[in-house]
Amino acid sequence: MNYTITNEKLSITIDSYGSQLLSIKTNDGHEYMWQRDEKYWKESAPVIFPFVARLVDKTYYIDGKKYVMDNHGFARNQEYEVEKISDNEIIFSINENEETLKAYPRKFQFSLIYKLVDNKLYITYKVVNNDDKMMYFGLGGHPGFNVPLKEGLTFEDYYIEYETCDTQKVIFTDTCFVDKIVPYKLDNKRIYLKHNIFDDDAIVLKGGHKATLKTDKDNRLVTINYPNMDYFGIWHRVKSDAPYVCLEPWLSLPAKKEGETVFESEEGLIHLKPNDVYENTYSIEIE
After folding, report:
1. What is the largest CA-CA distance in the chain?
2. Cis peptide leading into 50, omega within 30 of 0?
3. How big is the CA angle at 86 (ends 81 and 90), to the nearest 5 degrees?
4. Domain residues for 27?
């Protein structure tokens, strides 16, 4: 079921299946989010939990046992309950169930809190460990935005303005597993959009906490602030002319190609003790 909340600047719509953001509109009715076209990508903003992107053979180990988990985890494929809804805030939650326990042997509550403040949407991930064992997890966002944002402009008119020139770039293998992280200097803090820069899949950076989708030919822009996440992915479907770009704040990285993925020792995962609560917030600013 779809739910909509509004304030004086923005209107957003979220699908309770996957707690997936479907729409961000300004008060003049202008749509900023990618509107799902199977030709290019049938989703709009899948929620990532409890692992970011790929596991080798979709498998990992926890408690000494082997488990199978799909790309980006299972949270995007669950029906969420609405815990709270008001004019400018809505909270979606899931708990462990028979399906999740097959992939991830922990009892938990996972919530998404969407809150509108002026021209910003704040998205908060909340994890409650209801198990008697330590939880290990990653998480992140995957929102897609229309490019161009104005009729008459082109994809190549836009660029991503990053927070700093001096970043690091994650180098992936040809099967999209992590190989290494290397120094990477941006051109005037910018990544200029061209379809072919995604021919080898996502561009993932480390070193900043803010990025803006913009053009010098129009005032409309999208800014992602992710103060407590270390990685930022930029993506659209590989080897295509897809008219969107995903701006993805990540807490952790995909698996490495070599060796087994063991959650207890996997770099970047949160370790959450029984009965503890973890929260992380990023924002989408619309102009």
Report:
1. 57
2. yes
3. 40
4. 2-286
**Positions of E strands within 96-177:** 108-117, 120-129, 135-137, 144-146, 158-162, 166-172
Cβ contact 36:12 at 8 Å: no
Q: How far apart are CA 115 and CA 56, in angstroms?
A: 36
Note whether 29 and 58 are within 8 A (CB): no
Instruction: For CA atoms 202, 125, 17, 99, give the dihedral sign.
Output: positive
Residue 241 token pair: 């002319």
- Spatial neighbors of 19 by CB under 8 A, at least 6 apart, are 47, 75, 80, 92, 94, 112
The CATH number linked to 259 is 2.70.98.10
Per-residue pLDDT reduced to its tens digit, 132-158:
999 999 999 999 999 999 999 999 999
Structural domains in the chain (count): 1
pLDDT digits (tens, 9 = 90+) for 195-248: 999 998 999 999 899 999 999 999 999 999 999 999 999 999 999 999 999 999
Q: Which has the closest alpha carbon to 143: 246, 285, 24?
A: 246
pTM for this prediction: 0.96
DSSP letter for 253, please.
-
Identify the CA nearest to 141 among candidates 43, 55, 208, 237: 43
What amino acid occupies position 108?
F
Nearest to 143 by CA among 5, 26, 255, 244: 244
Token digits of residue 238: 């590989």
Distance CA 206, CA 213 (A): 17
For residue 46, is the peptide bond before it cis, meaning its omega torsion is within 30 degrees of 0?
Answer: no
Block residue for tokens 């980006």? 72
In whole angstroms, what is the distance from residue 52 CA to residue 269 CA?
10
